[in-house]
Amino acid sequence: MCAQILNRMGQLSLAVSLLGAVVKSSLFTVDSGHRAVIFDRFTGVRKQVVGEGTHFFLPWVQRPIIFDVRSQPRTVPVETGSKDLQNVNITLRILYHPIPGQLPRIYTNFGEDYDERVLPSIVPEVLKAVVAQFDAGELITQRERVSQRVSDELTVRARSFGFMLDDISLTHLAFGRELTAAVEMKQVAQQEAEKARFIVEKAEQHKLASIISAEGDAAAADLLAKSFEEAGDGFVELRRIEAAEDIAHQLSRSPGVSYLPSGQSTLPNLATNMVAPLT
């Protein structure tokens, strides 16, 4: 009796273990930021997208394919030509993620490595089409406009393949050596032209100042002539007195200057008084 009970317990334990193994193999977990697509051997890829959490599936019959739907970065270098036939090297950095509702179509058409198949194809195509509409100078001076045009067209193009672009930026823009040297020479020429224009404007200002000064001198001469006509020698005598007063004022401030009365021989008298009489 005990042997039968132990045998049944062993069978029950084996059945429970087998059931646990079957249940465990029938479960799969979708982590945060991920989605899953179920492939059925009989019906193909199911259109229903499985969200986060733990879910059941039929082993051997069904297989879950898990996708990361968070934003992922990618850098794509492209060499193309501008409107004026200049070689341009552009590096585009994008953040992208698949549209969760489009995952069945993405897996059916492109597989799990959809980004490796789609992005290297559509990014160069859009970049070349946009850059060809601008010449080299516009690519430099209108970089924001070029980036916006690329973003708009590439977003529409990517959406048709089932994923979204969260951010697009031009991280590198370089031209050939010949164009770079020509741009540098043009900048130097512009700076020299600005310098020459400044010199010309400065000369014009000096010329204008000289004309104004000459006009002032002429006006002063006219005033002097009128004064001479009206006052005669009196005006000249007044200016002579003013000049004498100014000279006297300047000399009075000098410690080494002495005044002598007019019409007297002061220095010889001083010399005579300083000599003692002979005995």
UniProtKB/TrEMBL annotation:
Its main location: mitochondrion. InterPro entries: Band_7, Band_7/SPFH_dom_sf, Prohibitin. Pfam families: Band_7. Gene3D superfamilies: Band 7 domain. GO terms for cellular component: mitochondrial inner membrane. GO terms for biological process: mitochondrion organization. Keywords: Membrane, Mitochondrion, Mitochondrion inner membrane, Signal. Residues 26-187 form the Band domain. CDD domains: SPFH_prohibitin. Coiled coil: none annotated. Belongs to the prohibitin family. This is Prohibitin. It comes from Drosophila lebanonensis. The lineage of its organism: Eukaryota, Metazoa, Ecdysozoa, Arthropoda, Hexapoda.
